[in-house]
Amino acid sequence: MAVWPFGRKKKDNEDTEQQLNDVAHAASPAEEAASATPGSEPNPPSHGDDLVASLPHDAVNGDSGPFDGDQVDIEDFDFSDYSIGTLNLGSMRIPMPSGLQVQVELGPSGPKMIHLVNEHCRITPLVFAAPASGGQWESASADILAGMKRDGVSDAVYEAGPWGREILGTVGANTVRVIGVDGPRWMLRFMVVSPAASQDAARDTAHALASHTFVYRGTQPMLAGNSLPVAVPQQLVNQVNKAISQHAKQQAAQRAAQQTTRMEHDEQSIAEAAEALRSLRDDQPAAHPKTDSYDNTEGSTRE
Asked: What are the tens digits of pLDDT across the range 79-95?
């Protein structure tokens, strides 16, 4: 899948249209790198080739994302033909297309992870601090692939994508794809999970989403490999708190209903036992009083 460049609001409309025309039939960077000779037809994406490498990505002056939000202003771009709004996660800003919903995974202390979900897949975006020299995805992907194989995902392989190396594997009936892109002192990673039948649609959704994403690394020192904090928008926090409250009320109501049911059952059992005792007494023969027997002949008084 080719990743289309984006026109900025400040550019002339003619320049934007010409730019789109120029790339309408252009191959993706991975397809161009896979071509055997200049002018030949691009090879299909590579499966299982350990030599699939990450491709250099310009997150500042490039025509498509992911972009470095600290150096590139998201307001310079018009994504109205793609998104219906922008999800602000602090370390990431992600223009959201129609049909993509936000799910918050809760941990013991509150929101733990953000998932982006549509009918085809679930995408989990994360950003990690990286060295200024770059190349973190190259080593991280090797570790991820080895870990997947160690965990039983025997068919996990590298696959060439728009930014070079991706990881693809099967877990049960689902396909897992891991996309990584190196930027200035950061690495963006998308974990994509989908039914096997939807893996192509899931791949395209994730590629488009990553190419529109802006990363905000900041200037604070961080160890390479540490994940950047994800800030859950207040609206989502309110929704999560409301959901937690509703869930607690439902559980309380369920417990009360179960307790009422048990009490009603106990009362019914007591009533049935009492009725059984009454029936037992009614079925027993009546006891007759004992009287003395007299011989009327011998015991009578003679006159």
From this structure: 999 999 999 999 999 99
CATH number of this structure's domain 46-231:
2.60.120.1690
Q: Please report, for the chain, the start and end positions of each structural domain, with discontinuous segments joined by +.
A: 46-231, 233-280
**Residue 120 DSSP symbol:** S
Look up residue 46 and give its amino acid. S
Reported in sequence order, the residue ranges of the chain that DSSP labels E, i.e. its strands, are 67-68, 85-88, 92-96, 101-107, 110-117, 122-129, 157-161, 164-171, 174-183, 186-195, 214-215
Q: What is the pLDDT of residues 202-241, one digit of tens each?
A: 999 999 999 999 999 999 999 999 999 988 877 766 666 6
Q: Using one digit for the tens of pLDDT, what is the confidence trace for 141-152?
A: 999 999 999 999
